[in-house]
Design a protein that fits this description.
Elements lengths: L1 H19 L10 H14 L4 H28 L2
Helix pairs in contact: 2-3
Length: 78
């Protein structure tokens, strides 16, 4: 009986923590996030980590720019 009560108490506390957690933002990463992924991909694809990092950084900046532009348009109502 004690195991059942302990399990129920633990599940209740986990559910409480999960419900109280802040919502995740779906904002795209920028230069660092995409650059790191590009470096790994470039390294795996033939030891081109620097080239992959540069292209990944450029892609990240482009994605962030598009996201910011879209957010401005949504908030301005245009």
């Amino acid at each position: 009986m004690n195991k059942v009560l302990l399990t129920l108490a633990l599940c209740g506390s986990i559910a409480g923590v999960t419900l109280a957690a802040p919502l995740a933002q779906a904002a795209p990463g920028g230069c660092l996030k995409y650059g790191a992924a590009g470096a790994v991909a470039g390294h795996v694809a033939g030891h081109h980590a620097v080239r992959g990092a540069l292209l990944g950084c450029a892609a990240g900046m482009y994605q962030r720019h598009r996201y910011n532009k879209e957010q401005r348009a949504l908030h301005n109502g245009t």
